[in-house]
């Protein structure tokens, strides 16, 4: 008579008759999670798992010179972690090498490494060639954005500042606009775990996108079920936003005052996580979750799958969507990002491993 939904260590129980009242919400929640979707595999011939990355590679950002930053070790409410007590890390991979390895970047003293819980990342190259790395961090279940300077000579990150703001409540990803400014997605309105769950279950569209600079912070887009990945077109005119629970990608025009206006929405049949943009072609590469139920309710007997989509010509009348890779979880579980550099593809995951492929 009792239905039990087990949420990590907490349990939400409801009497079955009571649940009948929630049936419409339950059924639309199931459809937002794409709960009945199974994927047909699409294999790539030249792929290998990356040694040393075992506990996630949620986001990947590749510099124009082929250096890839990988955020690893995310602990996110309700989502599996293979090392819940281990702090997160940032790895670097040089994709120009024949056989690139992932190297953990050292982080400068004065930064609280023990609570480092990195999520979305974004790089910015300044006029003087300084490389800044913005990292969404969740120390003690909070949201901050950490700003680092990358020092290539000794594979290190120098921590410059921690950015906190009342509008940065539940940050998922950022895209850098300058050395200290960015757009950020809040994937939920609430930051408390149970309220986040309710927000998703009830299908509230209270998630938003915020512009941050030291001078001005403001909401620039709203009405998302759950805004997740965010990135920018190569001409820097358009911002792309993934709504993971609405299975679509928004194209927004960016204006001089940093406001955004809606241009179009591309509907897909998968939970879209992080967005990467090929700087040469403008193609959007997306790490996707074909079935969100398997991601949120981890079952080793029924693993979360992986799927990579490429979108060509998103601004045209007929964008081309290609399923480049798909796996039922036997190789790669819970893909969240796919990023490209000169025929090499990196596929990252929320809490599992990472794949390196030659296309
Ligand atoms: Ca990102
Ligand atoms: Ca994400």
Automatic annotation (TrEMBL):
<dbReference type="Pfam" id="PF01731">
    <property type="entry name" value="Arylesterase"/>
</dbReference>
<dbReference type="GO" id="GO:0004063">
    <property type="term" value="F:aryldialkylphosphatase activity"/>
</dbReference>
<keyword id="KW-0106">Calcium</keyword>
<dbReference type="InterPro" id="IPR011042">
    <property type="entry name" value="6-blade_b-propeller_TolB-like"/>
</dbReference>
<keyword id="KW-0325">Glycoprotein</keyword>
<feature type="glycosylation site" description="N-linked (GlcNAc...) asparagine">
    <location>
        <position position="274"/>
    </location>
</feature>
<keyword id="KW-0732">Signal</keyword>
<feature type="binding site">
    <location>
        <position position="274"/>
    </location>
    <ligand>
        <name>Ca(2+)</name>
    </ligand>
</feature>
<comment type="function">
    <text>The absence of paraoxonase activity in turkey and chicken blood and in turkey liver indicates that PON2, if expressed, does not hydrolyze paraoxon.</text>
</comment>
<comment type="similarity">
    <text>Belongs to the paraoxonase family.</text>
</comment>
<keyword id="KW-0378">Hydrolase</keyword>
<dbReference type="InterPro" id="IPR008364">
    <property type="entry name" value="Paraoxonase2"/>
</dbReference>
<keyword id="KW-0472">Membrane</keyword>
<feature type="glycosylation site" description="N-linked (GlcNAc...) asparagine">
    <location>
        <position position="328"/>
    </location>
</feature>
<dbReference type="GO" id="GO:0004064">
    <property type="term" value="F:arylesterase activity"/>
</dbReference>
<feature type="active site" description="Proton acceptor">
    <location>
        <position position="119"/>
    </location>
</feature>
<dbReference type="InterPro" id="IPR002640">
    <property type="entry name" value="Arylesterase"/>
</dbReference>
<feature type="binding site">
    <location>
        <position position="58"/>
    </location>
    <ligand>
        <name>Ca(2+)</name>
    </ligand>
</feature>
<dbReference type="GO" id="GO:0046872">
    <property type="term" value="F:metal ion binding"/>
</dbReference>
<feature type="binding site">
    <location>
        <position position="121"/>
    </location>
    <ligand>
        <name>Ca(2+)</name>
    </ligand>
</feature>
<dbReference type="GO" id="GO:0009636">
    <property type="term" value="P:response to toxic substance"/>
</dbReference>
<dbReference type="InterPro" id="IPR051288">
    <property type="entry name" value="Serum_paraoxonase/arylesterase"/>
</dbReference>
<keyword id="KW-1015">Disulfide bond</keyword>
<keyword id="KW-0479">Metal-binding</keyword>
<feature type="binding site">
    <location>
        <position position="173"/>
    </location>
    <ligand>
        <name>Ca(2+)</name>
    </ligand>
</feature>
<feature type="binding site">
    <location>
        <position position="172"/>
    </location>
    <ligand>
        <name>Ca(2+)</name>
    </ligand>
</feature>
<feature type="binding site">
    <location>
        <position position="228"/>
    </location>
    <ligand>
        <name>Ca(2+)</name>
    </ligand>
</feature>
<feature type="binding site">
    <location>
        <position position="273"/>
    </location>
    <ligand>
        <name>Ca(2+)</name>
    </ligand>
</feature>
<feature type="disulfide bond" description="In form B">
    <location>
        <begin position="47"/>
        <end position="357"/>
    </location>
</feature>
<dbReference type="GO" id="GO:0016020">
    <property type="term" value="C:membrane"/>
</dbReference>
<dbReference type="GO" id="GO:0005576">
    <property type="term" value="C:extracellular region"/>
</dbReference>
<protein>
    <recommendedName>
        <fullName>Paraoxonase</fullName>
        <ecNumber>3.1.1.2</ecNumber>
    </recommendedName>
</protein>
<feature type="binding site">
    <location>
        <position position="59"/>
    </location>
    <ligand>
        <name>Ca(2+)</name>
    </ligand>
</feature>
């Amino acid at each position: 008579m009792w239905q039990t939904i087990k949420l990590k260590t907490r349990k939400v129980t409801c009497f079955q008759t009571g649940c009948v009242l929630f049936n419409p919400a339950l059924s639309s929640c199931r459809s937002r999670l794409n709960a009945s979707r199974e994927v047909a595999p699409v294999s790539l011939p030249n792929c290998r798992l990356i040694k040393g990355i075992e506990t996630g590679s949620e986001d990947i950002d590749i510099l124009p010179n082929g250096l890839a930053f990988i955020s690893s070790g995310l602990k996110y409410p309700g989502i599996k972690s293979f090392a819940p007590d281990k702090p997160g890390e940032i790895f670097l991979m040089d994709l120009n090498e024949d056989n690139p390895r992932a190297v953990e970047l050292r982080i400068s003293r004065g930064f609280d490494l023990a609570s480092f819980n990195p999520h979305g990342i974004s790089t910015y190259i300044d006029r003087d060639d300084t490389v800044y790395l913005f990292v969404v961090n969740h120390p003690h279940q909070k949201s901050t954005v950490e700003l680092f300077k990358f020092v290539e000579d000794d594979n290190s990150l120098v921590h410059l500042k921690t950015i906190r703001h009342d509008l940065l409540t539940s940050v998922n990803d950022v895209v850098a606009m300058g050395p200290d400014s960015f757009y950020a997605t809040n994937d939920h309105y609430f930051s408390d775990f149970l309220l986040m769950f309710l927000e998703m279950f009830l299908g509230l569209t209270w998630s938003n996108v915020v512009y941050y600079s030291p001078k001005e912070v403001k909401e620039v887009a709203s009405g998302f079920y759950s805004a997740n990945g965010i990135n920018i077109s190569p001409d820097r005119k358009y911002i792309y936003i993934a709504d993971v629970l609405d299975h679509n990608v928004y194209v927004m025009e960016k204006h001089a005052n940093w406001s955004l206006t809606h241009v179009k929405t591309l509907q897909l049949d998968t939970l879209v996580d992080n967005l990467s943009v090929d700087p040469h072609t403008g193609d959007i590469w997306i790490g996707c979750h074909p079935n969100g139920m398997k991601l949120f309710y981890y079952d080793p007997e029924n693993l979360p799958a992986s799927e990579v989509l490429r979108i060509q010509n998103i601004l045209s009348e007929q964008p081309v969507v290609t399923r480049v890779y798909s796996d039922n979880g036997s190789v790669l579980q819970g893909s969240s990002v796919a990023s490209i550099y000169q025929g090499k593809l990196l596929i990252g995951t929320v809490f599992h491993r990472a794949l390196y492929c030659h296309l």
